[in-house]
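new request in #modeling-help
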Amino acid sequence: MSIDTGRQASRSVEQATPPWALAVKRNGSTFGLLSLALVLAMAFSAINPDSYATLLNVESIAFSIPEVGLMALAISVAMTIAGIDLSTVAVANLTAIFIAWYSRVGVEQGQGQLTATLIAVAGGLLIGVLCGLLNGLVIAKLKVAPILTTLATMQIFTGVAVAITRGEAAYGVTDPLSSFGYNSLLGVPIVFWLFGVVVVAVWLLMTKTKYGVSSTMMGASRTAAEYSGIAYTWVVTRTYVLAGLISAVAGLVLVSRTASASAGYGSSYLMLAITIAVLGGANPFGGRVAVVGAALAAIVLQLIASGLNMMGVSTYIYQIVQGLILVGVFVVAFERKRVSEAISRRRRRANAQTSQTNQQKEHQK
Amino acid sequence: MPLALQAKGITKTYGGVKALTEVDIDVRAGEVMCLAGANGSGKSTLIKIISGVETADAGHIEMDGVDVGRPSVTDSIDLGIQVIYQDMSLFPNLTVAENIAMSARVKARSKVVRVQAARSIAARVVERLGLQLSLDEKVENISVADRQLVAICRALALDVKVLFMDEPTTALTWREIDSLSRVVEQLKADGVAIVFVSHKTEEVFMMSDRITVLRNGAVVKSGAAAEFTPDTLIESLLGYLPSEERQLSALPVEDKAPALEVHEIGRNDLFEGVSFEVGAGEIVGLTGLLGSGRSEIAESIFGILPIDTGEIRVAGQAKPIGSVQEGIEAGIGYVPEDRLTQGVILEQSIESNLIAASLDKVSGRGGFLDSGQMARASQHAVEKLGIKTDNPANPVSSLSGGNQQRVVLGKWMETEPSVLILNGPTVGVDAGSKAVILDILRLTAEQGTGILMISDDVPELVSVCHRVLFVRRGRMDGALEMDEVSPERIRERLDR
């Protein structure tokens, strides 16, 4: 008879789960999105065999993904800490306007193409960082709700962009930027390569670093994270800076691809980006990293957009489809949670029962 | 006295596991029947079946000798069965009166909210029980003890015949428990049958006329309270008898600087002039009534509510602690009062929770985490604390309360603190897990950590603490040294 019985009993409760089953279970939404993308691609190819499954169309889809995919990534990152970044499109536009403006001014002032490009890009990314810093500090220090903060800064950034450009579009980028925006490498658009690199980098940052784990925990439970010594201001500020930086990269892609920038560009992108982030597995209530998911969801939605477009479906219908997808994702996510909760409740009860029986046996010895 | 409620042959199976096996219980009008059982013994399932939240696979229920089959939730409310759950299910943003009148209003299917009607219903119930409750105060502003009373009043606003109280005393100090027991006496006199669910043995004896013990989903013993002694009750709860006597960990032989010294610390309106020390390897209890400032003192030392005045020294060195980060750097660990919101992150993995406070330790260059070291750290904690899991990647929500608390302990063990502060470390934990947790504390102290344990569980304080300190109205109020510590003396001090 000793108080150690509980501890001994605990060791005897072991049921192994095969590693492949765990991998599928943990990455369920990723596998789901991947198969959804394949099914969509095959379905649209079957409907439109002459135009959908052509190299040209695949390339055009690949060109269209990075901008909105990066914006969705910025939102997804903010959602990890139970926040949101509505200013992502505005930041991207501001960056794009700066790059277009400096491309002209830099070259006019006699800088070489390469120098002007480097300064334009560095300045553009810095704008993204500063915008994110503003978001982060207002949210963390002044404790304004993220949705209100970024709604306000979205209007501020857009207003600044309108004021600078007087509402007109800024045209032209440097030669290196336009070839970056138009050319392909190994059959894949360079902007898509960049998208891939950013996705991998953000994934590493969110899952393999102290910052990433801290922000996930902060998103899941702010109180418990703070009681564990995770600094709220530090995590929140860094997260919005990261979101701002990703938005600026989106701006870089859009200005390189279209060789123009304006304050009102891509106004429909915001809702699309939120849809992608949620479809990708981000939880608006925080605590979930969905970087790869966001990338796959961007691909899925662009496959749908392109497919519907070829079938001659109007863009209004596409908007309705987007809305349905958003609602559908929420319904599926919440139902799945309910089912998995019921299962885990049962399993917990079962465990409690076995451990008690074990305790009893232990005692009888 | 007539039987108010009988449950006969209740059986419930969840996915092949029997949660309840042919359970028979009964309760008479005007008596308190205690339903005792450790966590996972099936108490909650039984209550849910009687109140209609879940449906039994077999068995039936009789009210006043009439077979009512397996009632639904509305059936059971109509029959006069009311349950006060642990969380009390009150509306924090409504007033006391509105909360009390809520279920009566729902039952009457009234669609219009009338403030005066609510107030008069509430006033009637409050008067009947002879309570002092301010009816117009919002529930979020009243104490936990008063919330409990509001929940009771709400049940009584309807015509209640059988009242289930699911661990009503978890969050109460024993003085508040005393006033709760007076209300219970009043209800008994009114002929209400009361089923009191608890695993705290002291209250079971204080409150109940009869005791029914559930273990592993079956009734193992049932009889008048007088037939039980604390030892036989615990033995039938657990199936064995854990030792509750004073079992002190060995104090270190060599002279070391005290793990924690606080000198004249204070924080505006919460406490002032607080001084004490905790030696390396020593376990010191800190107790006082709810609201005495005991939790605030702990949170101040850890850095959540930084001190305004005074000095904190850890392992002999003065440490300015202005934030949790500085508290952790100084070598302090804190197991908080509210495990579910402050202690663990339920939906995150056991592993993430275990390393949450020592991220710097497991991360290498550029802030990248060392996955090997993370796995080693969490595996080490799982083994050392006997956390029952088949995979540390599972979420903490998959664990029982006792195991969740071990995860919180493990998180702080990983930081290798000089001082470990625990606030109610075994609240809501069953007796078996409690013994294991106390044993872990003894081992930790023997390795040189100073432990400050805030608790109002008297047997627990007696069992592990070398010394016990008292707080009253934000000031230190004496201490019991080594041999002076006994249950009687602690109670006497608290009662003053």
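bot summary: Chain A touches chain B through 50 residues (CB under 8 Å).
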